[in-house]
Target: Arginine biosynthesis bifunctional protein ArgJ
Amino acid sequence: MPVGNIAPPDIIHAIEGVEIGITAAGVRYKDRDDLVVFRLSETASVACVTTTNKCCAAPVLLVREHLQQLAGSDKSARYLLINTGNANAATGEEGYRRALQTCKALADKVEVEVNQVMPFSTGVIGEVINSEAIINGLDNCLASLSQDNWLSAANAIRTTDTIPKVASTSVVVDEAISYKVTGISKGAGMIRPNMATMLGYVATDAPIAQHLLQQMLVELTNQSFNRITIDGDTSTNDCCVLIATGDNQANLIDSTQHPHYQVLYQALKEVFLRLATLIVRDGEGATKFITVKVTGGKTVEDCCDVAYAVAHSPLVKTAFFASDPNWGRIVAAVGYSGAENLDADQVSVTLDDVAICTRGQLDPSYTEEQGQEVMSRPEITINIDLGMGEATDTVYTCDLSHEYVSINADYRS
Amino acid sequence: MPVGNIAPPDIIHAIEGVEIGITAAGVRYKDRDDLVVFRLSETASVACVTTTNKCCAAPVLLVREHLQQLAGSDKSARYLLINTGNANAATGEEGYRRALQTCKALADKVEVEVNQVMPFSTGVIGEVINSEAIINGLDNCLASLSQDNWLSAANAIRTTDTIPKVASTSVVVDEAISYKVTGISKGAGMIRPNMATMLGYVATDAPIAQHLLQQMLVELTNQSFNRITIDGDTSTNDCCVLIATGDNQANLIDSTQHPHYQVLYQALKEVFLRLATLIVRDGEGATKFITVKVTGGKTVEDCCDVAYAVAHSPLVKTAFFASDPNWGRIVAAVGYSGAENLDADQVSVTLDDVAICTRGQLDPSYTEEQGQEVMSRPEITINIDLGMGEATDTVYTCDLSHEYVSINADYRS
Model:
């Protein structure tokens, strides 16, 4: 059961210049939407970040190659081709050949260069992909192109996600100008039944210069998709795409100093964070949504190290599953986090508003009842103050439950 | 249930120069052995390594201070004072004061300097230690000193370990000379009910120079206790001590070139490895003992990174619990291991003798039946060949079961 508010937004803004087509191509299962095509306007800027996993999938390699080729040309990415059911990972040269084949088929149909098509795959690892099914599904996909297909697309890119993940907002940047931001994501554990996992697609109708868009995407990803963890496993297929379709050169946002930049960035961040935390809320076996907020660090790196150590610790995560205020486990994880500037006697921990550990020792005001009460909440913030400086960082995670083991142990038996 | 052969050795060699006393001091529970004193001969060399956790416990701080003070003197460590039931961790200045108090009490009784006593604590974190109980137990402990108490000591230092952990061997280094090696350890998860965890004490009657002994201990620990993982959590109290009591200056082993060095080192390694792997076999909820052996690396660091990534992955561990040959998870973990020299297309994986993945792709000879069969074994070696060079490294771990979640989630409820 996903944790907390996971409903799609009431209003999902269409983004001018982005059309989405969907079909049930039978990549792995019959009669289930599994193929999605994004068509982007000719003037759209497109930025992309891909998994750091060195055993990355064939489509990831192709996305990188295509983007590199486009960077040296006057052309831009025009189509995203996304399938679920098969990740086309650990499939060697044959996998690469098949991914390229699907890009070519689409490129031929719509008359663009092959490197203007970006392929993405998610699903089972290590099986040869049914590229024929994908190619045969293209016509249906193209026939269904529409600006209003965001929610259907969020459903179609699911593997074992229990909910579609959509976020949408609009922002007024000027008296006369407002922009829309809409995005979808998928992921429910880093790899669930070998599902190579995280995908995110966000678009805005704001005009943003390509070089700035890429820089924004890296920053936005670092504050959202790179700040969530369910089981610490990084998939072979993770990709995130940011699209800006605006064509108004007079208002082109081309630097962080542009008057529209900050407010647009915040709107994008809101959408990214929502898409990322939805993945945690839908985490495998999750019963609690946990925010690990580290303050008082000497550096952001220290805060990040500490936050991840706590968020990854199976002992911390099982304690939260059990609603057990087992603060020694949190302190131990802080200690082995590898953070450079750390003094055990300066570390304080509060759970929501309950002070548990103050400067390395049990807080004198703490009672077991308080601890039990706060731990039983479905959404909890672990505040860790390192007492060393002003830096801060936040990571989002969920608890570790019996259900997690069941999901990951039992799916094939 | 511990996995595989976990019986203590038939012969546990006494080590001349090492006497052990044990008593039920009532540190936390009544009528349970919880206090152990080691008395070492005046000429013994003593080496020690301590946890890298920056939130380390008060006794760990004291051990480091005492060893530093002794290094600049002509005196050596004469007593180890070990309690279970309370880790004296996250206890601040009061914890430090109490640990020092127990050292002083023992030092006064046996007429040594306080820094010749090394304190070790294991048990619950964050509670003030009952130092009075320890001090009151010293007389009984000293009265029971004997060379034959290794097994009883292994039992006494347990927290939630289900088995005592002992290893013992003897080795002929020369026609006329043989040495004995005996050791004990404790640990069952990195922290089980907040139990601050790993302790190891190994002694030999060989004569080894102090500087070499420390160097050997670091190397031995890196190949044993630093190559096991259950849940990836590093405790606040981990310590390992190596004692060499031999007094024969004519045969003093003072360099790695000494003719007795290699064969003695191998005997020590055997004991260290046994003590370390016993901890994994007794791992929380473990149903399988897994050896992750990485070969063909360009560097040992790469091999170590890969081995730990695989051994830590909850997805790999749950797959082993389920006896599911889910090799995609292994390949994904290899990919995100952070190893510097890695080419996905060169990675091969075999489980025991079953080739699963060859150079990044499913091995053509592989069948699901073979995979199922090998995965159902209680002891499995994951062989990962990186195909990049000659380096190798090995890590030992166990699977992740429902029982792990139960043990760590339910203990206080």
Summary: Chain A is about 30% helix and 25% strand.
